[in-house]
Task: structure prediction
Amino acid sequence: MKSKLAQAASWAVLFALGAGASASAQTASVEEVVVTGSRIRTSPLERDQPVVAIDEALVAKQGLTSTVDVLQRIPSAGGGLNAKFNNSGNFGNPPDGGGVGAGSAEIDLRYLSSRRVLVLVDGLRWVPGAAASGVPGSVDLNTIPTAMISRMEVLQEGASPIYGSDAIAGVVNIITKERQEGFQATAQIGQTDHDDGFTQDYNVTWGATAGNLSIVVGGGYFKQDPVFSGDRAISRFPQPFASSCLDGGCSSGTPLGRFIVSDPNTGRDLNLTLKSALAPGVRPTYIPGDPTGAASSFKGFTTADRFNFQPFNYISTPLERVSLFGSVRQDITENVRFRARASYVQRKSANQAAPLPLFVGPDAGNGNLLDTVTVDATNPFNPFGFTLRPGTYAFIGRRMVENGPRHYEQEVDTWNVTATLSGDFSVGDKAWAWDVNAIYSRNHAEQTFTGNVNAQRVQQALGPLAQCTGACVPLNIFGGAGTITPAMLQFIGFTQQDTSQQELTDFSANLTGDLFDLPAGPLAFAVGVERRRTEGYFQPDAIVAAGLSSDIPAQPASGKITVKEAYGELKIPLLADMPFFHRLEGSLAARFFDYSTSGSDETFKAGLSWRPVEEVLFRASWGEGFRAPSIGELFGTASRFDQEINDPCSGFSAATPAAVRANCIARGVPANGSYVQLNPQISVVTSGNRALKPETSESWNFSGVWEPTMFRDTSWSRNVSLEVAYSNIELDDAIQAQNGQSLVDRCARTNDALACATITRTASGQIAGIANPLINIGGIKTRAVDVNFVWTSPQWDVGQFGFRWYTTRLLEFSEFVPGGAGLVKIEREGTERGSPDQPFPKWKSTGMLDWDKDMFGATLTGRYIHSVQEAGAANKLESRLYIDAQLRWRPDFMDQDISFAVGVNNLFDKDPPGCITCGLNNYDPNAYDAPGRFLYLRLSYKQ
Result:
């Protein structure tokens, strides 16, 4: 690292000392400010990094009401959590140490995950999210008041030397309103063309300036109703566009029960279910000699008997937000200013899953007490006449429909207070500026989960009748739907209460200005220091912490991280006002940090910016990145992720490759081919790891911008700009868990010792669980090209037109994971990974065509996602082109500035492509719209 920095510095100094051109004597026509990507004040027109700017007007033209929806439409975005994720109860905790994140909204750039994107507000850090299921390392965008936002800037390259940890894939800087005159308000309502998903969004702001005092205050209210999976064709069953459970994917946890028993009296292995539900209190009839005969209550279990859990799920989750904010700026003197900003957001959200599937027995795969439950012969509802224990039964699955859906409600309160004292002064004839900042922010989340049961009480209620005393009520899991009575539920059921919290305390100081003049211009600098402390905890319900929940196991986790940082940045003018060198500048940056958990290190960055002529700009940069493990990654306790996995060892047949068969048998799968995977979801247990090392990265970026003067103010064009940017990021020691499907595949196909060591199987061959803690996994390499084109027409008789086109071409996305013979390369570009969902399309593009004339306006938006091939299935997700349309009217005969807009997103009602290996609802919510058109109406008022 240091040798590369020294070389870059040497070249920069030689250029600076040898530059013979005179500095331009032009007077800046634009006020110099701090722009995203640098702490040095400069003209916002002279950006040395590729930045996508999104203002209020651009957001309004898309008809979107959530910050995350706007950001996730950027072609370089890889997705992230949003309202289309309904993971609670369906998949447990994702394998990243951060919990489910139910109701959260996150932004992922370059497919490197939201943990590697730094979110700033006014150039300052924001507290990580909280959703009462873990301690995540990403910012929840729902915690930032929408009405407070003036614009957003997205830096599409790493910036760890400038901003510190997390800025590996890029930076999102949300700029808030500091000045406003008068009252502004917007109201938008909308719903799908299926008459569901009703959404309402209201925002108001008011501002005034009196002398040296400026005030802006405001608030907002947002509410979104749910859309159920059963109301869309793609998600009615576990397979895309299926019409029955015969297409696969349904659960063996059924209301009629599934009973895999071995009768010790007859020696027969049985796989049974009820023919029909019985009356409460009636014990089924089991005939050992003819267990599925006419006189028996049982029949053989088949695929047709499986349970369709999909209709209970949300395909779009309900969400409600209330937000308040205020900003006060006081010019204390001509050169000293004070600003205080405060905000509060309350978010209420919900996830929902089908009623609890109560799985008991050695092959249940819960990873908790339920795997050891015995059903005693004295239980009054046990029809078999013998105790069900290891050796006499392997599995019982009973869907507890009497207990209702599993419903998870989150309430998250977020407070943020920021104070900034800033000013400027002169050193000789040079202008310097300084600022000192203090931040306190807290996220507190509470989650209420109904529909769970206490495993210890289930054990007691199924055990010997003599031990079911006091409040205990014997449990009937054999009689079918309606036979688990309210008294039984009252004994075994409980309402789960979980909490989590994160706090951020941050102090920083910055100084920037010009040091002295070089022949090509002033040498500019920025330096600063920062001290940051993050604390977080997750506290599951006491019953869950004791290991007695029948749902996802969890343990308390807590931790704190303190970091001290210092940085320096130089902008070095090398040449100016010479032939082919209108401007040539170099830049250097370094950041030094000391983490209480990860030790000390440093990162460096060097860049070059060259304008051969005024209308052409070339940029190149090299930089190092750094991301310290988050609290959840370090201190998170073991938790279960129920990943959808296809076990290659299931159901031997003539088509099974001989090597796979041999490897499976060597790992304990019965040689007779009797093992058939019970359920598609397999327990993958992930935990934090205090031995984790920080992630490091190296990135190269090259870009060019052309703003041709010959197309400026012509008969057909007011201005045109074209930007092409190349990004190459290599990430080492990536912190993540391995993919469960990859582990199972590598074990079965190659007998990879490392992969096989993570897998535990029962005597029957079922996968009991996969141990998959977070590790420094190897690495990730990604390369991409971004193309941005902007054209604006002059004012014609028919109006003014504008066109914006943003495209990203993913050239490479490779993961390097440990294998028995070293690192294994997995190429992801052009594929869909499947659970946990992530597509890697080679092309993504967004185009917006605007038209405005007098009182009227219109916008047509096209969003293209190239086809991808599922990595775990022979299925191609075809390309999608979504079309959005909006019409606007601003009547000029009204005294006030009032405007109306009506629009529809997904105008041609394109369904997302069906995905077989995706985790829920049969499509990937990272990239595709939920099925259906969305129609909306918006009213805007400005005083």
In short: Residues 2-18 form the longest helix (17 residues). The radius of gyration is 30 Å.
